[in-house]
Structure formats: C-alpha cells, structure tokens
Amino acid sequence: MRQVRRRYMRLRVTSERGYTTEEVAEAVQKVTRHLYGVHGLSNMSPLLIEFDEEKQAGILRCSHTHLRQMRASLAYITSIGESAAAITVERVSGTIRSLRALEKAEP
Amino acid sequence: MRRFIDLHLRQPNRAEELELMLRTAADTGYGAVAVAEGQANLSRASKSSGEIGIDLISRVDLRPHSDRDLSALLSRVRRRFEVVAVECGSKAVARQAAKDHRVDILVFSASLSTRAKTWFDDHEAVLAAESNCAYEINVGDLLLQGPVTVAKLLSTIRLEIENARKHGIPIVASSGADSHMLMREPRGLTALLDLVGVDEEVGLDMISRTPQRIVEVNRAKLSPSFIAPGVRRVG
C-alpha cells in the first residue's frame, strides 16, 4: 500500500487569551466539519501534532492533496470557545523535521 | 516574486488598532495595503507605515444615495485618492458606477437583502468591461456571518465571478478587515476563495498583480508629470 503524503504547517494563534491544545484541536476539527462536512474532514484528516501553550504556536498535519482546503478552514476561524481568535499559517513543509529545522534557523 | 496587496482595510475606531493592522499586514507578508478613508488616523498611519516598511495606498469608499450623488462625489475625490471604490447600494448607483471611468472598484453589500436587489449581474459586467472597473470580493464579509447567510453569499459571489470572467473584468480579493483579528495571511486569504471556485494561482493574482496594476495606473495619473493617458511631461 502506498504511503499517504502529508503536509505540516506551523501555525500561530492570535487572541487576547491563551488556549489549551485541546481547545485549538477541537476548534480546527469543528471549523473543518462546518466548512467541508464530514467527508472533507476525513479527506483532510487534520491533526494537531504539537502545541506550545506558552507561545500559542504549534504544528498541524494534514493531507497534502487538501492543503488549500485546510488553509481555508484555518483562515475561517474567528473565535475559539467564546473569545475572538485568528490562526495564521507561518510555514508549510513536507516533513516535520524540515519544519523544525527552519524554525531553529529563524532569528 | 509576487508583491501581495490587501486593497481594502477599513478604518478601525482606535488609532492603535490601525497601527496593529499595518504591523500584522507586514508580518504576514503584504507589501502594501489600502486603508479606506475615515475621519482621522490616516496621517498617523502613514507615518507608522514608513516605520513598519509597508506601502500605504490611499483609498476612498463612496456610498452615494443616487447616481447624481455619485457623479458629484467622484469629481470631488478622484484627484485626491489612489483608489476609488463605490459601494453599490442600489441598482441605479451600480449602473452609473460601472459606466464611469473614474471608478476603480465596484463593491457590493454583504447584506443578503441588498445583494438580492443589487449584485454584479451580466448587464453590470458589460458596462464595467467598457470602463475597466474591477470587481471586489471582500473575504471578511464571509467570516462573521451565520452558515445560512454564508451559503447564500457564496452562491451569489460564484455567479458574480462567472459574470466578471465572461466579460474579462479584473477581480480583486481583499480582507475588508477593520481589526487585525480579521486579517489573514495572503495564502490564507486566497485559500478562502476555494469556497467560490477560484484556483490558487488565479486567487494569488487577485491579491497581487490585479491590485498592483490598478495602483500603478492611478499613481501615474496622479503624478505631476501626467498630462493625458499615454502623454507624460519628461523635461
């Protein structure tokens, strides 16, 4: 069986308050289902691999064929829970290793 | 390399928020932004845009009550702003705006009741093609609405894009944001156009080449050396 290709996105949450990993993961799942339905959610299969609650930044994995829809879902987020929030994708990479390497290389 | 332009930022109430918006634009990869004219803040914004390193484009959004009102407003503002947009609140205004060469951008209401009466229909597109007006999609209009409204708005925008394409009207995509929380990075903004069937490359043109062309042409027209289209003072 052929291995599924994926994309890794480094994202940052902007809000007046901080969120937990679970809150962000749930918001991503919810907005994806809202915009593209259960079928879209299963195609994109978003997974929040890591999230730094202090920096409010993390890495999200999705299917490489649905990267644009994943970006649209993230851009569509205007609130998490009860408070206003926005998610910005800072970088996209084909491997988690190169994403981390790029992060370290940046000032 | 593309230079991304968000051609429509609405003025927030607080001056600090506008500065934050300019910073967000620069941080997320925009090279230029247009801030719609408000009462104050713009002089301060132009100062901070220099510090931030972002090109600030002057824009005015006209909301005329009638077609006659539009003509009067246009003669007053055309030489003062780099981008002139008209919010088409009625059919008469929309038709007049599409015919007038002084209008750069046509904007349609996010309200479903207004949009049902006044939208970018085929006839509007024919008129806009003759005067070289652009059609604008404000992505921010989709963000704060309920699912039913968004669904209806999306199908209207899809039809409008089809009309624009059929007649070769330039399409501009903007955030229409009035706070930094509603601003999106260039690729995020164009990804949202996936909802109205716009391909990635075409979407990227809508926030780079198309607005760039409008601004370049208008800046050339506003420069002191401009005499007439194609005629420029060189000495």
Could you explain the architecture of this structure?
The complex is a heterodimer of chains A (about 110) and B (about 240). Helix content of chain A is about 40%, strand content about 35%. Chain A is an alpha+beta fold. Chain A has a single domain (about 5-95), classed as Alpha-Beta Plaits, CATH 3.30.70.3250. In chain A, helix 1 packs antiparallel against helix 2 (about 65-75). The model of chain A has no long low-confidence stretch (mean pLDDT about 95). By secondary structure, chain B is an alpha/beta fold. Chain B has a domain at about 60-175 and about 180-220: Alpha-Beta Barrel (TIM Barrel), CATH 3.20.20.140. Chain B has helices at about 15-30, 40-50, 65-75, 90-100, 110-115, 120-130, 140-145, 145-165, 185-190, 200-205, 210-220; strands at about 5-10, 30-35, 55-60, 85-90, 105-110, 135-140, 170-175, 225-230, 230. Chain B has a seven-stranded parallel β-sheet, sandwiched between helices. In chain B, strands 8-9 form a two-stranded antiparallel ribbon. In chain B, strand 8 and strand 9 (about 230) form a beta hairpin. In chain B, helix 4 packs parallel to helix 6 (about 120-130) and helix 9 crosses helix 10. The interface of A and B includes residues 69, 76 and 78 of A.
